[in-house]
Amino acid sequence: MNAKKLRKNSMTEGSLWNKILGFAFPLAMTGILQQAFNAADIAVVGNFTGDLGEACMAAVGANTPIINFIINGFLGISLGTNVVIANAVGSKDDETVQKAVHTSMIVAIIGGIIVALLGELIAEPLFRLQNISEDAFDMALLYFRIYIAGTPVILLYNFEAAIFRGIGNTRIPFVALVISGVINVGLNVFFVVFMGRTVDGVATATVISNMISGIVLLLFLRKSKTAAKFDEKKLKISGPVLGKILKIGVPACLQSCVFSSANIIIQSAINSLGTLVAAASSAAFNIEIFSYYVLNSFGQACTTFTGQNFGAKKFDRCKKSLKLCLLEGIVIEGLMVSFLLFFGRDLISVFTPNPELVEIGYIRVMFITTAHLLSLFYDVMSGYMRGYGISLSPALVTMCCICGIRIIWIYTVFEHFRSFTSIMAVYPLSLGVNALAIGILLLIKRPAKKYSAQA
Question: Which of 166, 275, 176, 156 is nearest to 227 (CA)?
């Protein structure tokens, strides 16, 4: 690769605004397509399982907070991989990049096996806590048991994607997802429409497609001409590098677990309102999450751009990355929210012909997509601090503000006003408070000023 091309692709040199967009767009599309393919699970069982449609939708939807609780903990650790590799790339430390790649691959596989085994053991008692209706319970448990068995390949893909983000490449994970996603949709139709399966069919399709995406990324890493090249002969855990990954990743892991715990409580409250509301919430989640992936892509862009420039000791570019991620994120996220509010009902109707279900689901879309504009601020500012290796304090603030407020709300306000709308109202409240608190934390930390003074 010649010097001109290196400068063009470098996060530490040249114009930032177009590079941030070039990084964030494939990342956002990866999340959106991933959710679109996951939404195919809901759409297929909602339309092709006859009278079981609503129960199947509720069963798959009931899995979301529990799967997020179990899986997202390790995905938080993968953020440590992203930051460590980004810092090493910025400081041109190829040895650390190599060690981080191979250490992360081992963590993904071993962690995936442990999670799969534990998930199978705690599945039934965990689902008993969720107030799932009797007509959906057995199917929810069946979906979970199949999905969780595929955890090793799911974590492998996500850690591989974190490696690519660390070196500044979000296009290859996007390509891998497109390939596996198309296969996922095809398998959904095959298992449910032609084989007559229900939730077990879509769960099996999801595991197979995740395995394919993990294999595709592994092949790309083996052929990589960068320091992130994977070589199975070099598979070994580096203690110092693992320590750096865990220092950043464990707080993010704890944040994800506590966050997911709060969402399990919220899901339990939703389930208590009946199968129709649970199904409507499940369908709406698969719409509203599109806007989350847009804002999250700018948060992750800020982490990676800050991480590389921090490694290169270019603190002014770190601050500029923060400002541009916020500005570009507000514009793109605003467009996405407007789109979802305008077409929300039409998108929900893809999952079911039931007009009552569509209207209930649209309540969720209205509350949460508009609240995502507040999420953008705390996601980008937290990402900025993580790029410097500051992970614990943003995690603690988020746990207190978002999780604390949501749990208290469900056990107080919801107990007096038992409606879907009263549950949804906690989202803008908790996200707004957290955005303000993270902003205050950033003003206190001022990492660019601190580290530039030490340089």
Answer: 166
